């Protein structure tokens, strides 16, 4: 706890030291997650370094996501009354009524897939307790919120033993989703990253900059965009050649349910990717849904037998080749010859010219691609705060064959005209 300091205090008792750092008895609070028997304890301390993991902020963000994406507007209104009750002079009641109220047992609303965002007036009550640094008040608020969440997760059992047991409402909401909401995806990604990668970021920065071993990440917003643009879905196979700590592989399988494979040469990122995969599986269970199958390999993409097996089946291949040296980019290109028709290669440097097939590159490997350039916004990548470009290469052999035939016909016609001209002389 040397890297953390106290955040909360007891305004009614200056002698209260329960909210200060302690080697063993540090202050904690629990948060109920959507799935049954799923909860987590958060340390109520603040990091001395603002770049370090902040458990209080993490707790608040996760709670906000639960309220925004798992509750109906009527249910959020119930939670929205907490600030008025909690900040009054009255004791906060723990809501365990003998029968479940109507808002706790109704079926989830499906007419609007994305409920409107909560206004500041109805935001979770802990925000006010956090701003006041009031420890006892924060614990009281969280007890009340957890009690309401438990009521949604474990509705009272009917008095008639033959009546069906009410289901966990938060899990029922998940069943109504057509897709995992973007806010939930980003929260799970962030929770996993903070626990598995965050404490080891300094080790990742040791790799030589501007070399093929340089470390860099695509941010979740850009990954989501690539997923949409390439049409990844539950039946797709996604490959990440040079997968780093596994962020893109894991998010793709979380967001779409697709099967994903990633290979990483460097030992430390590959180790963290395996740690992230373990955490992802835990987090998905806590949030109440599943992710697609993920396979991770530590090794060289150029010599991996598994890469050679999967390339012909792949629907989308990502190569974050922003700093790959020319020889490595050139060595990767022959593998794309085995891609099936319509497969897409996404990269940060183009593998084929944007101008398309010309007489000069007619017999080049890259001629099978139709290339589209896309722009990403500032903040979409980890290595700088600027915008930039990425490229979508779609395999289109039919177009290539047609274009090649046209060139050959044109060349043949040109040759015949030249021969005819010489004969006339």
TrEMBL record:
In contrast to other lysine histone methyltransferases, it does not contain a SET domain, suggesting the existence of another mechanism for methylation of lysine residues of histones. It is found in: Nucleus. This is Histone-lysine N-methyltransferase, H3 lysine-79 specific. Keywords: Chromatin regulator, Methyltransferase, Nucleus, S-adenosyl-L-methionine, Transferase. It comes from the Eukaryota. SUPFAM superfamilies: S-adenosyl-L-methionine-dependent methyltransferases. Residues 89-408 form the DOT1 domain. Its main location: nucleus. GO terms for biological process: DNA damage checkpoint signaling; DNA repair; methylation. It is an enzyme of class 2 (transferase). Its EC number is 2.1.1.360. Residues 1-22, 98-128 are annotated as: Disordered. PANTHER family: HISTONE H3 METHYLTRANSFERASE, HISTONE-LYSINE N-METHYLTRANSFERASE, H3 LYSINE-79 SPECIFIC. It catalyses: L-lysyl(79)-[histone H3] + 3 S-adenosyl-L-methionine = N(6),N(6),N(6)-trimethyl-L-lysyl(79)-[histone H3] + 3 S-adenosyl-L-homocysteine + 3 H(+). Histone methyltransferase that specifically trimethylates histone H3 to form H3K79me3. This methylation is required for telomere silencing and for the pachytene checkpoint during the meiotic cell cycle by allowing the recruitment of RAD9 to double strand breaks. Nucleosomes are preferred as substrate compared to free histone. Ubiquitination of histone H2B to form H2BK123ub1 is required for efficient DOT1 methyltransferase activity on histone H3. GO terms for molecular function: histone H3K79 trimethyltransferase activity. InterPro entries: DOT1_dom, H3-K79_meTrfase, SAM-dependent_MTases_sf. GO terms for cellular component: nucleus. Belongs to the class I-like SAM-binding methyltransferase superfamily. DOT1 family.
């Amino acid at each position: 706890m040397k890297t953390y300091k106290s955040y909360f205090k007891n305004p009614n008792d200056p002698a209260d030291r329960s909210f200060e750092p302690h080697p063993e008895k540090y202050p904690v609070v629990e948060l109920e997650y959507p799935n049954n028997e799923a909860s987590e304890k958060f340390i109520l301390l603040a990091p001395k370094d603002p770049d370090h993991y902040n458990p209080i902020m993490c707790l608040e963000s996760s709670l906000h996501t639960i309220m925004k994406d798992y509750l109906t507007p009527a249910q959020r209104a119930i939670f929205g009354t907490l600030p008025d009750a909690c900040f009054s002079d009255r004791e906060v009641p723990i809501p365990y009524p003998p029968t479940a109220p109507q808002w706790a047992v109704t079926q989830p609303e499906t007419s609007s897939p994305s409920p409107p965002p909560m206004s500041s007036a109805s935001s979770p009550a802990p925000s006010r307790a956090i701003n006041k640094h009031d420890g006892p008040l924060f614990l009281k608020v969280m007890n009340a919120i957890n009690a309401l969440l438990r009521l949604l997760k474990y509705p009272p059992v009917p008095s008639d033993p033959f009546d069906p047991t009410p289901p966990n409402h938060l899990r029922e909401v998940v069943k109504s989703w057509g897709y995992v909401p973007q806010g939930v995806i980003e929260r799970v990604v962030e929770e996993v990253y903070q626990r598995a990668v965050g404490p080891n970021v300094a080790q990742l920065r040791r790799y030589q900059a501007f070399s093929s071993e340089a470390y860099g990440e695509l941010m979740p917003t850009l990954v989501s965009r690539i997923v949409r643009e390439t049409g990844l879905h539950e039946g797709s196979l996604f490959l990440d050649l040079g997968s780093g700590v596994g962020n893109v592989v894991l998010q793709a399988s979380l967001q779409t349910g697709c099967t994903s494979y990633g290979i990483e040469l460097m030992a430390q990122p590959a180790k963290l990717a395996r740690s992230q995969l373990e955490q992802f599986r835990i987090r998905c269970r806590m949030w109440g849904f599943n992710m697609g199958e993920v396979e991770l390999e530590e090794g060289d993409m150029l010599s991996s037998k598994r890469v050679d097996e999967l390339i012909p089946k792949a629907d989308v291949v990502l190569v974050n080749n922003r700093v790959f040296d020319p020889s490595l980019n050139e060595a990767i290109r022959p593998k794309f010859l085995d891609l099936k028709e319509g497969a897409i290669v996404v990269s940060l440097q183009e593998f084929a010219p944007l101008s398309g097939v010309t007489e000069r590159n007619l017999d080049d490997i890259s001629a099978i691609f139709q290339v589209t350039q896309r722009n990403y916004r500032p903040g979409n990548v980890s290595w700088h705060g600027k915008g930039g470009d990425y490229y979508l290469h779609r395999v289109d052999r039919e177009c290539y064959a047609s274009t090649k035939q046209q060139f050959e016909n044109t060349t043949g016609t040109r040759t015949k005209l030249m021969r005819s001209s010489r004969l006339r002389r």
